[in-house]
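Cont'd.
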Amino acid sequence: MNIELIAIGDEVLYGMVVNSNAAFIAHALLEAGFLVSRHSTVGDDPVALRKALHAALLRKSCVITTGGLGPTCDDHTRAAIAEIFNVPLKHNSEVHAYIKSIFGSVKSIDNQATLPVGAEILQNPLGTASGLYLKNERLYPESFLIALPGVPSEMREMVKTGLIPYLKAKLPVGKRLFVLPLHFMKLCEVDVDHHLHEIEKECPAIECGIYPGLGVLSVQLKAFAHDEEEFLEIVTIYKERLSEKFRAHLFDSPSGRLDEAVHRYFLERKLSLALAESCTGGSLAGRFCAYSGASSYFRGSIVAYSNEIKTGLLHVSEKTLESKGAVSIEVTEEMAKGVAKEMKAQCSVAVSGILGPTGGTADKPVGTICASLYLEGASIHSWQMNHIGNREMILEKTIQNILAELLTFLVKHR
Amino acid sequence: MNIELIAIGDEVLYGMVVNSNAAFIAHALLEAGFLVSRHSTVGDDPVALRKALHAALLRKSCVITTGGLGPTCDDHTRAAIAEIFNVPLKHNSEVHAYIKSIFGSVKSIDNQATLPVGAEILQNPLGTASGLYLKNERLYPESFLIALPGVPSEMREMVKTGLIPYLKAKLPVGKRLFVLPLHFMKLCEVDVDHHLHEIEKECPAIECGIYPGLGVLSVQLKAFAHDEEEFLEIVTIYKERLSEKFRAHLFDSPSGRLDEAVHRYFLERKLSLALAESCTGGSLAGRFCAYSGASSYFRGSIVAYSNEIKTGLLHVSEKTLESKGAVSIEVTEEMAKGVAKEMKAQCSVAVSGILGPTGGTADKPVGTICASLYLEGASIHSWQMNHIGNREMILEKTIQNILAELLTFLVKHR
């Protein structure tokens, strides 16, 4: 049986609101062993809504809608459902009593308790819009419909406590899909792709996915299994093969974020860290401070946007600045040493560059970034990057590149 | 003509990634005068993809797809398009040359230059996946298809520079929807709601929208008109009424972001700014440095995550730290003065607090944040915030609150 999600509302259709409801439901269902086959979004237009519902129900589907169950003039879901299931709307005194018991005598209570006859009710503990379950053997013999409210907090609670137990009782749960993610830095899709093809060929039960992010490549090994043990039996040798093949690129982070992996590295080893940032302007420091516990290793950052601060607080020599320019390996080396000394840190990172769109020269075009890593007892490591893109992209590529170099450098030297 | 958006990819279908592309495109089209009629999402399944494309093209539509244009085994969009338009895939040497000119001889270049015959190319300046435009008068006489890459940064750039000019040339633009946004800080929905109802009652041509964000409330006045002049004739008196009513809350930012409004304020007045950040850990500095031109006023930030740096670099007295604690108005006042002096800035901001989830006490629970604003020649302004939420939310609320206070303070004192 198909599972189709339909989001209802002009605010979603016209992009004022991102449809995060679909992702939440799809992911919750995936984890429960159900695969969604399609999402759609339609606006607050009764005709378009009825058409979309009717077409989905004809596809032998469990159709799950979100939105349009509120009490205002642009909420059409209950009426549309009643129409396509060919039943009247009628006041339901039990639902009325339930809403009143939780929310008191709210103005919209009569409206919210008026529901398609024959609908089973999925209670909403957080709001006045009840969820609905409808089936009609004659009109849609192999389908059924579940309507949920669109307010994310209400919908999420009802998915966990109502929808998923409901589907588990209604639909056969056999094997479910398990997913094993692996995260790599400094790798491209094409580096990994043919290895995944080989895995899929050797073991047709496994499906591979590649998800490139900025500076990060995530690979997923997916397979259907009855439980985690069975799944691990299928994927473990391939996981180990990929880990072995790309050992220098693999990083460990539940979220798949490189900043989290670097944060965990510093946290576990209690290695103190300080930053000297020019072009990244505090954003690199922000990546560490986003994680709880950073205060146990992160000393601080000097954001030196002006040259005066580079020479003053970071002790960069005026001679180096003049002869090499602010964007140079010589300057970032002095910045890295300066901030490590000033903040008494064992490790430091310095970065200076041109994010654009202005400030580039023939010699050093927009996207030229220099960085240095200092580690107590090891030699300093410096390099130059040349990124393309707009300001936001160059900043993000710079941060990802520094995080990857830093992790590689630390693993090598400690 | 309908406009339908189809997102392609298992990662979207199964909820690993939220489909923010649909919202971006729908909103960009809305602003350009085109209304989207439906979004869908399908997975990396060639059969489901072809079915969805075919069905959408039969609905007299401009179909816009995102995703599946990459070079790997789970990218099926080019093949699916070729199949439903009944044309072969063929290597395109012009596209090959274009990709090579920007990205060099990347490994995937042959694959990425193999495209459906007859497709017009929408160049992608930020990636190797070209956009495609296809039409077939015989198969789908009243429809056409535009395929865009799924990587958000690439897609966004191509929507602005490629898709929208393209649609304006292809589709009739009659009366289109114009939107006038107004952005307010320190306001709630209920403060504004009844004023908007009044406007809608007085002038039925106007539809109002309220979009609350973290720390920001955006209001939209929307109306259909032939051109901007006609639109402004309709909305101007209501815009002025709202601006007058909420003058102290209004801020000026094309993006609706408070950080942009503050950036513009400093940029225009060439007022120099320095920051001393404890709990925000560089993120506040990052908000300014995200904007080109920040270097003309932004001096830098000292991210003082440890007390030693507060006393050393920021000259906070050890006595104050000990008697009042790091999270206190007395400490942020000394931080603000210290960084202004150290960085020779006319204006400075200091912040210190507990983002959690650990570190709270009975006296100063998680969410307790102190901040100070210093302005040359004015008295220092300090206040305490008490935010609730998780670490990420408390950080964002803190940043928004500081930006709002800073803008209000500057407008009042200068």
